[in-house]
């Protein structure tokens, strides 16, 4: 088994940054270099002021402070880092394709392919190349083909090592992973590569939690894990709609079914819908793969998870509109939260975007407050939809830094992210300065029904009539 003292990771994003920071902090004898073509991102990773790191994750800045410029480096010198490394992680983005064959469903692998070509061009000695990005099953064979046909005749072992961290808990998830999955060839050199990577993780994780499989099982397991998780959220969200019609309470149902150890209690929180960069993208990819093998029933089954999620988002927006007497034109509605979940500044596929878009379609006047998301990001998310002009987005939607002041003369507040601070607000003062009747639409089931009603609010909690 190779002794590792140099690792490089291509892609300094939500996965590459935290994952490599943890590896560096747990393996002081290994030099870890995270490279990216985005100069701004690398500058932010190197910023003296740790509050300027490009991503926000609890515990991240402490780890970066401890390891940076000792054995953890952030750089744009991609070729140099590839050349020096024994293990190269590919952790670049794999978004849904926006063009050509598979548009809207398949994963766009152009960034991954560019990395493979770059590695082939630069490598002068044997390398272990690790797929950290989430990839369609059988991508490793494409990477292998590129490396073998364009490389300098050095040996490349390709491993699949998908990442299971969730944003907001990335550091905790990495330090205490349920499992690490390593897929590779069953050849002697493939086995050696799997053991070499395993030894890196064994610095801090028990060996039993490091699972080895063939490459294809590892690639597919990642898509399936996300599909199962998202399916649970969509399942409970469809039942939340039924609860609202029947006086059943979704929280009581989650508890009742979650006590069954076969079902388990986690991931049963009804919400305004799931967001995040991966659930939708990975399920669409799974659907595309199943369809490409002619497995129509399999594809249709998983596609329902996305359809149910879209339904939940539009159902929430429609409930706001109908509660406000079917007319929200010119009415001030405050959105609490824009991130797709608490403790992250990531807004990719956030349900807030879809809800805001639906309300703006009705000419509502929106004010958004999110403790971690910038105004620039919020406008970029809306502009990307292309529903209306950037000028109209800025005219109809304002971003506030003061959550309490934002509610002055508002008709309604909608809670779209479960930030803890929303629970600590003085809701009596908020009520006092809102127009009456004052509405709160709680898409995250954050607040207490009785308390909100006793203050005087018309309070709606998703999944409860
Ligand atoms: N965000 C998450 O929580 C998770 C993401 N994943 C997967 O990990 C992968 C990466 O996701 P994120 O880190 O969220 O993406 P990201 O978009 O935050 O970061 C990707 C980075 O790769 C860089 N990049 C692209 N092409 C490059 C190239 N040729 N050379 C150097 N750098 C290049 C981009 O500039 C960007 O900074 C995706 O496949 C995603 O599905 C997996 C688990 C969790
Ligand atoms: O591949 C990925 O990107 C990652 O996707 C998810 O992680 P993440 O999207 O960061 O966050 P989650 O905690 O899974 O939440 C996803 C969405 O579902 C929503 N959710 C989650 C749980 C729940 O009970 N209810 C619910 O509405 C969240 O609010 C959020 O919008 C998975 O949990 C990770 O294991 C995976 O690595």
Give a written overview of the molecule.
Helix content is 45%, strand content 13%. It has 2 domains: 6-213, NAD(P)-binding Rossmann-like Domain (Rossmann fold, 3-Layer(aba) Sandwich); 216-465, NAD(P)-binding Rossmann-like Domain (Rossmann fold), CATH 3.40.50. The relative contact order is 0.09. It is built from 18 helices and 14 strands. The longest helix is centred in the middle third of the chain and has 32 residues, at 215-246. The termini are far apart. The protein has 465 residues and is of the alpha/beta class. Strands 3-2-1-4-5-6 form a 6-stranded parallel sheet, sandwiched between helices. Bound molecules: 1,4-dihydronicotinamide adenine dinucleotide (NAI) and uridine-5'-diphosphate-glucuronic acid. The site of uridine-5'-diphosphate-glucuronic acid has 21 residues, from helix 9. Pathway: Nucleotide-sugar biosynthesis; UDP-alpha-D-glucuronate biosynthesis; UDP-alpha-D-glucuronate from UDP-alpha-D-glucose: step 1/1. Its EC number is 1.1.1.22. Catalyzes the conversion of UDP-glucose into UDP-glucuronate, one of the precursors of teichuronic acid. Keywords: NAD, Oxidoreductase.
């Amino acid at each position: 088994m190779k002794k590792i003292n140099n690792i490089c990771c291509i892609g300094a994003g939500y996965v590459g940054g935290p994952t490599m920071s943890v590896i560096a902090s747990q393996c002081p004898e290994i030099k870890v270099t995270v490279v990216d073509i985005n100069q701004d991102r690398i500058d932010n990773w190197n910023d003296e002021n740790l509050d300027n790191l490009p991503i926000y994750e609890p515990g991240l800045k402490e780890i970066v402070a401890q390891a940076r410029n000792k054995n953890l480096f952030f750089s744009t010198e991609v070729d140099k880092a590839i050349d020096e490394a024994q293990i190269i992680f590919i952790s670049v983005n794999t978004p849904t394709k926006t063009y050509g064959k598979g548009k809207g469903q398949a994963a766009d692998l152009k960034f991954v392919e560019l990395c493979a070509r770059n590695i082939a061009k630069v490598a002068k000695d044997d390398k272990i190349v690790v797929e950290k990005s989430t990839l369609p099953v059988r991508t490793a064979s494409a990477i292998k083909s590129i490396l073998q046909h364009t490389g300098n005749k050095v040996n490349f072992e390709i491993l699949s090592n998908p990442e299971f961290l969730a944003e907001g808990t990335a550091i905790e998830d990495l330090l205490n992973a349920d499992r690490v999955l390593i897929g590779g060839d069953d050849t002697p050199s493939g086995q050696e590569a799997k053991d070499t990577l395993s030894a890196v993780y064994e610095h801090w994780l028990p060996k039993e939690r490091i699972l080895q499989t063939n490459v294809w099982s590892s690639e597919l397991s990642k898509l399936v894990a996300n599909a199962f998780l998202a399916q649970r959220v969509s399942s409970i969200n469809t039942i939340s709609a039924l609860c609202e019609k029947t006086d059943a309470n979704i929280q009581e149902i989650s508890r009742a079914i979650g006590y069954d150890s076969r079902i388990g209690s986690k991931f049963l929180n009804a919400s305004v819908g799931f967001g995040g960069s991966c659930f939708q993208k990975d399920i669409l990819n799974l659907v595309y793969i199943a369809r490409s093998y002619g497995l129509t029933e399999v594809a249709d089954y998983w596609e329902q998870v996305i359809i149910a999620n879209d339904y939940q988002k539009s159902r929430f927006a429609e409930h706001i509109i109908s509660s406000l007497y079917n007319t929200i034109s010119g009415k001030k509605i405050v959105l609490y939260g824009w991130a797709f979940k608490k403790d992250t500044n990531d807004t990719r596929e956030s349900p807030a975007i879809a809800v805001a878009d639906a309300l703006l379609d009705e000419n509502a006047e929106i004010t958004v407050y999110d403790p971690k998301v910038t105004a620039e990001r919020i406008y970029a998310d809306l502009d990307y939809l292309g529903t209306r002009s950037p000028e109209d987005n800025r005219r109809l939607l304002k971003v506030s830094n003061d959550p309490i002041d934002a509610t002055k003369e508002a008709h309604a507040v909608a809670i779209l992210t479960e930030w803890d601070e929303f629970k600590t607000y003085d809701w009596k003062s908020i009520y006092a300065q809102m127009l009456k009747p004052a509405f709160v639409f709680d898409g995250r089931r954050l607040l207490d029904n009785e308390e909100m009603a006793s203050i005087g609010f018309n309070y709606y909690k998703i999944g409860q009539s």
